[in-house]
Amino acid sequence: MGIPFGRYELLRKIAAGGMGQVLLARKGAEGFEKLVVIKRILPHLVEDEEFFAMFIDEAKITMRLDHPNIARINEFGVENGVHFIEMEYVSGEDVRRMDKRARMANHPVPLGVILRVIADAAAGLDFAHKAKDSKGNPLGLVHRDVSPQNVLVGFDGSVKLLDFGVAKAAGRAQHTATGILKGKFPYMSPEQADGLDIDARSDVFALGIVLWELLTGKRLFKGENDLMTQRLVKACQVPPPSEVEPSLPKGLDAVVLKSLAKDVKDRYADAGAFRMALEDFAFKNSIPASNAHLVEFMQGLYADRIAKEADPRTLEEDSGLTDLDAGGLPKNAQGATTVDRSKQQGGQVFPAGDSRTEAVSNPAGRSRAGLWAGIGIVAVLLIGVVGYVVKGRGDETPKPVDPPVLPVKPPELPKVVEQPPQVVEYVTYALSSEPSEAEVELAGDKRGLTPIELKVEKNKLPVLLKVSRDGYEPFQTTLTDSTDPAVTVTLKKKATVKVGPKPSDIKTTR
Predict the structure, then answer these.
(1) Least confident of 78-82, 183-187, 452-456, 502-506
(2) Residue 230: which H helix or E strand, with range?
(3) Is 263 a catalytic residue?
(4) Other beta carbons less than 10 A from residue 414's beta carbon
(5) Which terminus of the chain has fewer Cβ atoms in its 10 Å neighbourhood, N or C?
(6) 364: which strand partners?
(7) What pLDDT score does 460 carry?
């Protein structure tokens, strides 16, 4: 049995963190029930004026994004002093988990399905980038956190872009300080990693990374730490997908690499142009990339979960709601002082898009621009959630194994003195060359072709590095622990030796 929460019945906890909870809920009378996602902000955060205003600022943006490829906010409400938003529920999986499950099943995601997912995600991005306010002025929205975790694929074939929690729009009340980076380092554009101004083409680059990784099964920019990853992004050395995965058509390389161009001027002008390039490639090469093909793939890959979720009795299994009281409130939050901001609006609950949410004033004297979306929505993202979906437990609980029966008097074992584990420190270098595809030798051992990531034990430094390629002078240097982790080598062409005429060819006159 679920836990009552106003007109909702809480069924299962999807995720929880320091800012709030994400819960699967059911609403509506019997015969008219509907599954939704409830996101609740913790009471103590409502008292933080700046925090609350920030989320309303984000809500002002997201409430306008009504598109089939963007996760939808239904409405905002307050129940027993707890502020919450209701969002659509999509039964499915995020792209990262989908790809991992497919590869573990030895059935990688088909090329056409990949193209369909990315094209639909690009459609959602394009709509967001071109969204306007109530006066018809462009919002100038940039997502800034496009990643595999924020692209959800439904079992019904729907593709939803999630998490505009770090989105940036021109003229918004809460501005990001210069130099502060928001988003995931492995999915940043070079200009974003540099802390520069960004536009819609930065999101195109991030979606291009997602596409490249789905096609190759490899990570494009992933270092040992955030600093190393940031340097890899800035270097922007992107091998053509067909060189990493030879089964891919070479004609696709140009489409992918254009989205991943280091210079923003060389990328697609917008996400719509990127989507069109993907659609055209699939059509011209007769690749099955329709929504029907996506549905067929998802229903085959997740047949067990789909069958399980079809049984209403499974919705409350392993609900994770033990930390809530009978009224659906966190037990550890009882007695805490809360600010019921719904009183500013007469306790009303406004659906997303209601014009009344723009008529709220700020009693603390803050800019009305930060609150003109009203207390109508708390935020797009109360906590970092991979997807608005209940993660099914496809595997059955393993049966307990009986412990082995020991003899009455077990034999004495020799005492073993445990040695403390030796910690091996490594130094990682991101090596690139101009031109690329040069052979790399480290201490005489061939390591591969540039660009390449070299991992060296710190106690083996210094070590000799040699980079060579036909037609170019070989380059040698010594790597030390003080060498910059990002190493770029420029090879010089070998000098052309001019061969003179043979003596027999020399003509003399007398």
Answers:
(1) 502-506
(2) helix 226-235
(3) no
(4) 4
(5) C
(6) none
(7) 79
Q: Residue 154: its pLDDT value, please?
A: 96
Share of the chain above pLDDT 70, in %: 69
Query: Does 174 have pLDDT greater than 90?
Result: no
Of 232, 234, 252, 233, which Cα lies nearest the Cα of 242? Answer: 252
Give tens-digit pLDDT for 22-72: 889 999 877 788 899 888 877 777 777 776 766 666 666 677 788 999 988
Instruction: Determine contact, residues 230/185, Cβ cutoff 8 Å.
Output: yes
Q: Do the Cβ atoms of 235 and 430 come closer than 8 Å?
A: yes
If phi > 0 it is left, if psi is from -120 to 50 it is alpha, else beta; for residue 369 that is alpha
E-state strands within 223-316: none
C-alpha 488 chain-centroid distance: 29
**C-alpha span between 111 and 211 (Å, rounded):** 10
Give the right CATH number for 426-490 from 2.60.40, 3.30.70, 1.10.150, 2.10.260: 2.60.40
Q: State both tokens at 388.
A: 């608005």
pLDDT in tens, 317-344: 666 676 666 556 666 554 444 455 555 5
The two tokens of residue 266 are 């060389």
Token pair for 323:
């930390």
Give 505: exposed, middle or buried? Use CB within 10 Å, 0-12, 13-18, 19+.
exposed
- DSSP result, 425-480: PEEEEEEEEESSS-EEEETTEEEEESSEEEEEEGGG-SEEEEEE-TTB--EEEEE-
| Active-site choice (145, 163, 203, 270) | 145
Instruction: Identify which of 159, 115, 155, 510 has the alpha carbon closest to the alpha carbon of residue 288.
Output: 115
Asked if residue 90 lies in contact with residue 152, where contact means CB atoms within 8 angstroms, the answer is: yes
* Type of residue numbered 470: D
pTM of whole model > 0.70?
no
CA angle, 21 as apex, 15 and 27 as ends, to 5°?
100
- Residues 213 and 260: their CA atoms lie apart, in Å, by 12
Higher pLDDT, 410 or 142: 142
Here the tokens at position 458 are: 């710190």
